[in-house]
Design a protein that fits this description.
The complex is a heterodimer of chains A (295) and B (776). Chain A is 33% helix and 23% strand. Chain A is of the alpha+beta class and 295 residues long. In chain A, the strands form four sheets. Chain A has a five-stranded antiparallel sheet. The chains are: A alpha+beta (295), B alpha+beta (776).
């Protein structure tokens, strides 16, 4: 079905112009990859007055790593993410996650930042940026500011970003010592599925853990109680069992068109265990190579 | 292109021959985007239509108020039931007149559109359609066929009178049966009896191109209808009925069709009749194309069936009796259900000789989408049941599952459940042998059984037979026509009544013409069906099209050879009896002309270079006890599936499928292999992924984000093998292949999962969720 709703389309020449339009035009909406937005327009989930196409803007592209900080420009696509040597060598969890997003055609267009701006509960980038404590960089007419990813998601398809600001990128301070990580995504088939549930795990030297879940609450969530119970512990069976036992306290899956609550509840501990074991093995230089599917 | 030979040059004929891997004649057009689908077409002054949906699945229709929509600028008309100028009936079977084109007093499923809006653009029409007020009094609905058989179930067609004598009561509108031998005595002889109940689900065709039509009014009351379809002659009748005009006033032209799989058998009649009624009203061309979501709502599905299967066998594995009960969910209208249920009933035992058979089948109305033709036509559901029970008996008796199928399987000289004595072209034993050998069955069956870890492997088999063409209860014409014309330059125009829908028909027919007439492949031009060129040739369904159109073309070619041979003989100074047509040239081994030279000579001498062909299928029988030669000939297949089941997550990975198919004769090995690969994937979708979820009868999975189809990354390793047991009445010995590839897969996969897990699943699909919940 074609998009029935009429809207203006502008392609600003600079970030300043873009944020000015957002400030002046109520109902303006930013267009980057458009893989969520165009579907939402078609379904009349959003009815913007004007689309501000930022695809041509300078300075929003690219992946850089300097001084322990990985920067991902807001126009970086998932294909660029998973093809980046920088990402593969410094933050392979992003690579592992990016490979599970949709299909090649969508990944060629969809942006990592767009994924967290759409903020659907099953977004793949959400749990991974959460376990990396990413910082979101936003710019409005009042200037630039940063938002910790933990404060970013506020509800189903809702973020703290006001409508007159544009995200320019995200940065991640990577652990200085070697870490291991894993992204476990529950799909219904090997094809381009949305996550029915997902778990991102980072394992740090000294047996520290960072864990986040996707698609099991209104937003992606950090699992602080599980992190706390594992803190400083070797990942032996009792630690795994303790972690799994806390899953019901950290998640609140529902039944929807893709899967039942019961199935999600059964799967989450299994996914967590697979994620934890893989992350620890990888930290220790073992385990399956990044990009392996766990389910 | 390298596979095509040049007229007049040395005979480079290999690609043109029957049996060669000729490149598809439509490959260039489809790969470059030149192919013109119905939505690509436009006509001067063309308007656009959209449908008004009721928003619920069962309701009394009190009225349609289009006032606001009509006042919208750009809206030209809003049509309701009273605007149908002819008879307001669109069902394909005239003996079941239960489906109005536009409902006038009752809405029976959520896709039961109540009005047509015509506007200047598609967007306007859709927007206006949403502003049409539909006054409804909602009624309780029934969404499951077994529940619909309960005495107190809501009635989908309360206007129907019960027929107690025939057992047609309430929502049960159809019964079909088979009675062979003495079933009770057969079970007496049995050492083991297994009875189980199985359930299958709606399956979407998911063809690439949604349904669409354009109706163009012509002189007087005539109309030309363009559309994506399998059965132009069905559409011709439906449009003539809805408009109340003679058939001769309705010309239907099939546009390039992006897949059908049965979903474009009868359903295009609805959209084409809607477009035609709208075009007649406004006097201008009208286009109506469904969105994918609309296509889900308004197209037919594979019948969900509940099958109770009771099978008895002696200790050595010989089947003694089968007692089968089939309940088929027809949805809101009968559509093709009587034919589907006939086929399911006739074949319900699977491809085995069983002396005593009792089968009872019921067609039941519900407030769901209509169900109709889908590759396999009612059989994959019963096969899932029969092949599961056969496996269970084999395992209980300690007999290898393939071995028990070999022992009981049909062969020449054996009799089907309808007591049809098979006298030729029975390739089942060979497909079983090849599938066993190529899959490595014996070693794997043993090795996989030893798996004890988290991931367990399994291997399973499914065997089937399929009566080719319409059979005894088919209500459409079982003949097919062809028209072949040779131009003075040697190019050949072929018009046929069978449709190319992506399966490769035009390519194999071009091979048949090339091989039999001696014309080079590139000189043969086959058009899509135009009902004004070829008489009613029946539907392109039931694996009949290569057989029927192929034989019709051969009939026309035989006439052309008869008129052209004397000319060749005269030119070459040989006798007409010695003239051979092709490959590549016409004449004898020593003296020959090119086909183009002969064509020019025939035209110069005013010799007829045009002929019509016709082929009529043999007579078939099926009495009221379901006994007779139900189909003229059968295709056979065996598929072996290998799976890996993660017992912790329930995920089933389909690793490998070995597909052995008896097709009579391979006309083109590449297109044939493609058909099998596609069918294997559709079987995998039915077995593992596809679920149509609903709320109150409305589909809540109306797109490919929510309705899961296997994608290219889900494709297993597929090995295809062909068996050629020629059919004496088939073109070059060929039978049909369209249906069979999609038939054994679900049963084979379910049997493989059982082998891996030790658990019998009796409801499809085997999603990871379902398997996980069963494994605990």
């Amino acid at each position: 079905m074609p998009i029935a709703h009429e809207f203006d389309y502008v392609k600003p020449a600079s970030l300043e112009e873009a944020v000015a339009i957002l400030a002046e035009r109520p109902g303006a909406q930013v267009l980057a990859g458009g893989t969520d937005l165009v579907g939402w327009l078609r379904d009349e989930f959003v009815e913007p007055s004007v689309l501000v196409d930022i695809k041509g803007l300078d300075g929003l592209h690219g992946i850089e790593f300097a001084d322990g900080i990985l920067s991902i420009g807001s126009l970086t696509t998932f294909t660029e993410l998973i093809e980046s040597e920088t990402v593969r060598s410094h933050a392979p969890l992003l690579y592992e996650m990016g490979r599970t997003v949709a299909s090649t055609g969508i990944r060629n267009r969809a942006t990592v930042v767009g994924n967290i701006c759409s903020a659907v509960p099953c977004c793949d980038a959400g749990p991974v940026l959460l376990v990396y404590d990413a910082i979101v960089h936003a710019t409005g007419i009042a200037g630039a500011r940063t938002i910790p990813i933990r404060e970013w998601f506020v509800g189903n398809k809702r973020t703290v970003l006001p409508p007159d600001e544009i995200v320019t990128g995200v940065t991640i301070r990577l652990p200085m010592c070697g870490h291991g990580a894993a992204y476990v995504k529950l799909g219904r088939y090997r094809g381009e599925d949305l996550a029915q549930a997902s778990v991102a795990v980072v394992s740090l030297p000294g047996n520290a853990y960072r864990i986040a879940f996707g698609a099991v609450a209104a937003t992606p969530v950090r699992a602080q109680r599980i992190e706390a119970v594992l803190e400083g512990r070797e990942l032996d069976q009792s630690a795994v069992d303790a972690a799994k036992g806390l899953v019901p306290e950290e998640t609140s899956p529902i039944t929807d068109v893709r899967a039942s609550q019961e199935y999600r509840e059964l799967m989450l501990p299994i996914m967590l265990e697979r994620g934890l074991r893989a992350a620890v093995a990888r930290r220790d230089g073992e385990g399956p190579e990044y990009g392996t599917r766990f389910i | 292109m390298s596979d095509r030979d040049d007229t007049g040059g040395p005979p480079e004929i290999s690609s043109a021959r029957v049996g060669s891997p000729a490149i598809r004649v439509d490959a260039d057009d489809k790969s470059t985007g030149r192919a013109v689908y119905v939505d690509d077409l436009t006509f001067p002054g063309m308007l656009h239509a959209a449908l008004v949906y009721p928003g619920c699945a069962h309701a009394r229709l009190l009225g349609v108020r289009p006032d606001e929509a009509i006042r919208t600028p750009g809206v030209r008309a809003v049509l309701t039931a009273q605007d149908v100028p002819g008879e307001n009936q669109v069902g394909v079977l005239r003996s079941y007149p239960d489906q109005p084109l536009l409902p006038h007093d009752t809405v029976r499923y959520s896709g039961d559109a109540v009005a047509i809006v015509v506007a200047d653009t598609g967007a306007l029409a859709r927007e206006a359609a949403r502003s049409v007020r539909v006054d409804l009094e909602e009624l309780p609905g029934v969404f499951d066929a077994v529940e619909a058989m309960e005495p107190n179930a809501p009635r989908v067609h309360p206007e129907r009178e019960d027929d107690d004598d025939r057992g047609l009561v309430g929502n049960v509108f159809l019964r079909e049966r088979v009675r062979k031998g003495d079933v009770d005595a057969g079970f007496e002889e049995a050492d083991i009896i297994v009875e189980r109940t199985f359930r299958t689900h709606h399956q979407e065709h998911a063809y690439l191109e949604p349904l669409g039509a354009i109706a163009v009014p012509g002189e007087g009351s005539s109309v030309t209808v363009y559309g994506t379809m399998q059965c132009p002659y069905y559409v011709q009748k439906a449009v003539a009925t809805a408009l109340g005009v003679p058939l001769a006033d309705v010309r239907v032209i099939q546009t390039v069709t992006g897949g059908g799989f049965g979903g474009k058998e009868d359903v295009p009649s609805e959209i084409c009749a809607c477009a035609a009624v709208a075009a007649a009203k406004v006097g201008k061309p009208v286009k109506l194309v469904y969105t994918r979501e609309e296509d889900f709502e308004r197209s037919s599905k594979r019948h969900p069936m509940t099958v109770t299967y009771r099978l008895g066998a002696t200790i050595d594995g010989t089947f003694t009796a089968a007692d089968i009960r089939i309940v088929a969910d027809a949805g809101a209208y009968s559509t093709l259900t009587p034919i589907v249920v006939f086929r399911a009933t006739a074949h319900a035992t699977g491809p085995y000789e069983i002396p005593n058979v009792r089968t009872d089948a019921y067609g039941v109305y519900t407030n769901r989408q209509t169900t109709g033709a889908f590759r396999g036509f009612g059989q994959p559901q019963t096969i899932f049941a029969s092949e599961s029970v056969v496996d269970e008996i084999a395992c209980a008796l300690g007999i290898d599952p393939i071995e028990i199928r070999v022992r009981n399987g049909l062969a020449v000289g054996k009799r089907t459940a309808t007591d049809h004595l098979l006298d030729e072209s029975v390739g089942l034993p060979e497909t079983l042998r090849i599938a066993r050998e190529r899959s490595g069955w014996d070693e794997k069956r043993e090795a996989f059984a030893g798996d004890a870890g988290r991931v367990r492997r399994g291997i399973g088999v499914g065997a089937i037979y399929y009566g080719v063409s319409l059979g005894a209860r088919g209500l459409a014409i079982d003949g097919s026509g062809a028209h072949v014309e040779i131009e003075p330059d040697g190019s050949v125009r072929v018009a046929i009544g069978g449709t190319e829908m992506g399966q490769g028909l035009h390519t194999v027919l071009a091979q048949i013409v090339s091989d039999s007439l001696g014309a080079p492949m590139h000189a043969i031009h086959i058009g899509h069906v135009d009902t004004s060129l070829v008489p009613d040739s029946g539907p392109s369904v039931a694996s009949r099209t290569t057989l029927m159109s192929g034989n019709a073309v051969l009939d026309a070619v035989a006439k052309l050879r008869e008129s052209m041979a004397p000319v060749a003989a005269d030119v070459l100074g040989v006798t007409a009896e010695d003239v051979e047509f092709g490959p590549g040239r016409v004449g004898t081994r020593e003296r020959s002309v090119t086909f183009a030279e002969l064509a020019a000579e025939c035209h110069a001498r005013d010799v007829a270079t045009v002929a019509d062909g016709w082929y009529k299928a043999p007579v078939t029988t099926f009495d009221e006890d379901g006994q007779g030669d139900a189909y003229a000939v059968y295709s056979f297949a065996t598929q072996v599936a290998e799976v890996e089941v993660d017992t912790e997550t329930g995920a089933v990975a389909l690793v490998r499928v070995t597909a052995a198919h008896d097709v009579g004769k391979v006309l083109n090995p590449v297109t044939l292999e493609g058909q099998v690969q596609g069918g294997v994937l559709q079987g995998a979708g039915m077995a593992l992924y596809e679920i149509m979820k609903t709320e109150g009868g409305r589909i809540v999975t109306p797109d490919f984000a929510t309705y899961i189809l296997p994608t290219s990354v889900d494709v297993p390793e597929i090995e295809v093998a062909f068996v050629e047991e020629p059919y004496s009445k088939g073109p070059f010995g060929a039978k049909g292949i369209g249906e069979t590839p999609a038939m054994p897969g679900a049963a084979a996969i379910a049997n493989a999962v059982s082998h891996a897990t030790g658990i019998r699943f009796r409801e499809l699909p085997l999603t990871a969720e379902r398997v996980k919940l069963a494994l605990g």
